């Protein structure tokens, strides 16, 4: 970074010489607290003049890919710098936009867009419409927006950045945006929670308007407003990402909420003919919750200038906070209450779909009598074939398989697969579950590890609904979504609802066994998972995520970009934006089903409205559907 104490002609010439070099970004410290940041290939510059007691306004442009902060003093020199920058870039792009922002009077409640309405009608309209979205933030704050066709586009009491005649001479167009300072009190105190959303809405409106200008007025290859965010990230972003990951890796949440004595619970329950349920015992916590929370809230996430990254890191901190609280509450009602918050309840639509599946599909009794069931070791052998397939795509991929006596569920943690020692599975389900665990969970863990942020391998907040939706979809795509598997996913939802209704272990077991005709073993597996921790709703997300993913695909959504890491449905647009900005990478590994000859046909059927009960693969479907 270069530092200049004046903006003489010689200094400006040196800055222009640097701008002619083929570099991705340029940063210059300028006189009296000024700063210039320019990334390559952009025909615009956002501008802010430093002012006293102007809390918040400067932050509105610090994430722009091209911005100038004008220091206090040397104003004529800054005007000269602006003219020369515009003159240089307008020759490249046919035109150049200067976009100045500044705060209005303390009591102002109106955005004032000042510009040449005759020359930029579309750009000013896009900006006006975008700024009106600010009114969705808080019902108690109403902000107007108006366009003023005026040559005076600067703050009251200040000088022009450039006159209209000067902008014509250097091939530029100038827009001024007066921003009502509703994000702070009249005494200058910032409203930080409101300001976060205000910041996001205003900067998005600015980017959309600037993109409109670029698309219509310039010869520039920018194809989306998402590309106008900074492509280079500051070190503090990576530091916070690293520390969040260290905190999450200090404990394994699913491992710590699952009972360590599950086999004793199962043995005693069946020996007593479903009368005795032993207390759940849990592993000792390897962390001090108080210390871990202190570390969480020592992270200066509010200092991240990029509103997109600030948002996803703040979400993750809140999720980790809730998980740490739950670990300290295992075996209590509070654990269950926090589980409801973490997994956002069930809802009537999901409950109705689960009951419809259980009504329409009968249990495949032959499945439990299958003499070809694989044990854990045989299944692990098959898993290694899939691991080898993914290693051929990238030699850095690895996934260890562990067979353990102290786990009650098959799961992937930190990219490795854990199997219960008594695990058995049929051949058709085996292929499906390999794609579920390895082709989805282990694959997205690895793809996430290739991203610049470790959170994409650990999982952004609420990532597991999309993850499990993808995993269940993969079972269908490889022809392994059996009746009993789909019934199990539906059974987990009705068990979760029964727990919400206040039923205990034995009552939920009896409900699954008698009303929904599950086998004794399957009923136990479902209810034992539902009751861990004191009541855990995680298992509802398999069917919930699958249904949500189906709606996403019906709406024209693309499947492959969802495999670039672990993130939630509400992150899809954010991931697309960060990918367009070349911050995130497309998926490195691709699951084998994407190359299947049946893949496109099966996706087409989903988009055409294939009922979920017709996605099962085993036996004669007509015989498996109950007659109504």
Amount of helix:
40-55%
The spatial strand order of the largest sheet comes to 1-2-3-5-4-6-9-7-8
- Gross morphology is elongated
Mean pLDDT: 91
Provide tags for this entry:
628 residues; alpha/beta; nine-stranded mixed sheet; three-stranded mixed sheet; 48% helix
Explain briefly what this protein structure is.
The protein is an alpha/beta fold and 628 residues long. The protein is 48% helix and 11% strand.
Give a structural overview.
- The protein is α/β, with parallel strands linked by helices and 628 residues long.
- The chain is 48% helix and 11% strand.
- It has a nine-stranded mixed beta sheet with strand order 1-2-3-5-4-6-9-7-8, sandwiched between helices. A three-stranded mixed beta sheet has the order 11-13-12, with helices on one face. The protein has a two-stranded antiparallel ribbon with strand order 10-14.
- β12 and β13 form a beta hairpin.
- α6 packs parallel to α10 and α18 packs across α20.
- The longest helix is centred in the N-terminal third of the chain and has 26 residues.
- It is elongated.
- It starts with a strand and ends with a helix.
- The C terminus is likely disordered.
């Amino acid at each position: 970074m270069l530092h200049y104490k004046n903006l003489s002609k010689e200094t400006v010439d040196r800055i222009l010489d640097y701008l002619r070099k083929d570099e991705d970004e340029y940063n210059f410290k300028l006189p009296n607290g000024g700063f210039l940041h320019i990334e390559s290939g952009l025909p615009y510059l956002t501008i802010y003049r430093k002012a006293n007691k102007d809390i918040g306004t400067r932050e509105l442009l610090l994430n722009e890919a091209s911005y100038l902060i004008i220091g206090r003093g040397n104003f004529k020199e800054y005007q000269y710098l602006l003219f020369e920058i515009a003159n240089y870039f307008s020759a490249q792009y046919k035109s150049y936009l200067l976009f100045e922002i500044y705060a209005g009077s303390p009591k102002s409640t109106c955005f004032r867009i000042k510009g040449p309405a005759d020359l930029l009608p579309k750009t000013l309209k896009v900006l006006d419409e975008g700024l009106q979205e600010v009114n969705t933030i808080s019902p108690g704050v109403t902000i107007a927006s108006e366009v003023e066709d005026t040559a005076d586009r600067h703050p009251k009491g200040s000088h022009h950045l450039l006159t209209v005649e000067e902008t014509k001479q250097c091939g530029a167009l100038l827009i001024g945006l007066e921003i009502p300072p509703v994000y702070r009190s009249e005494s200058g105190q910032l409203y930080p929670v409101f300001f976060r959303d205000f910041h996001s809405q205003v900067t998005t409106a600015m980017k959309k308007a600037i993109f409109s200008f670029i698309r219509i007025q310039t010869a520039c290859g920018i194809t989306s407003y998402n590309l106008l965010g900074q492509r280079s990230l500051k070190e503090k972003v990576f530091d916070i990402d690293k520390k969040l990951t260290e905190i999450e890796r200090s404990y394994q949440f699913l491992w710590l909420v699952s009972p360590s004595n599950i086999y004793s619970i199962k043995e005693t329950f069946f020996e007593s003919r479903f009368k005795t349920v032993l207390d759940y015992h849990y592993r000792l916590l390897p962390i001090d919750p108080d210390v871990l929370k202190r570390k969480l809230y020592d992270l200066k996430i509010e200092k991240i200038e990029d509103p997109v990254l600030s948002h996803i890191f703040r979400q993750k901190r809140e999720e980790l906070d809730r998980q740490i609280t739950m670990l300290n509450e295992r075996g209590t009602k509070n654990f269950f209450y926090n589980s409801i918050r973490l997994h956002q309840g069930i809802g009537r639509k999901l409950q109705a779909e689960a009951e419809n599946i259980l009504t329409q599909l009968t249990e495949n009794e032959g499945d439990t009598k299958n003499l070809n069931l694989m044990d854990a070791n045989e299944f692990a052998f098959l898993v290694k074939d899939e691991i080898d397939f993914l290693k051929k795509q990238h030699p850095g991929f690895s996934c260890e398989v562990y067979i353990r006596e102290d786990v009650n569920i098959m799961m992937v943690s930190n990219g490795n697969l854990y199997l219960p020692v008594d695990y058995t599975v049929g051949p058709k389900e085996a292929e499906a579950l390999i794609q579920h665990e390895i082709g989805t969970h282990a694959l997205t863990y690895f793809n996430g590890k290739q991203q610049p942020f470790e959170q994409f391998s650990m999982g952004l907040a609420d990532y597991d609904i999309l993850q499990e939706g993808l995993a269940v979809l993969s079972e269908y795509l490889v022809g392994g979504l059996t009746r009993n598997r789909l019934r199990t996913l539906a059974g987990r939802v009705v068990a979760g609802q029964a727990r919400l209704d206040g039923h205990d272990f034995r009552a939920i077991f009896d409900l699954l066994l008698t009303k929904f005709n599950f086998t004794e073993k399957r009923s136990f597996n479902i209810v034992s998972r539902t009751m861990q921790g004191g009541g855990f709703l995680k298992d509802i997300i398999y069917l919930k995520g699958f249904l949500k993913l189906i709606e996403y695909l019906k709406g024209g959504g693309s499947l492959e970009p969802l495999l670039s890491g672990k993130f939630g449905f509400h992150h899809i647009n954010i991931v697309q934006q960060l990918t367009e900005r070349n911050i995130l990478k497309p998926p490195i590994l691709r699951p084998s089903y994407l190359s299947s000859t049946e893949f496109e046909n099966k996706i087409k059927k989903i988009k055409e409205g294939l009922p979920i009960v017709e996605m099962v693969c085993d036996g004669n479907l007509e015989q498996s559907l109950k007659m109504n």
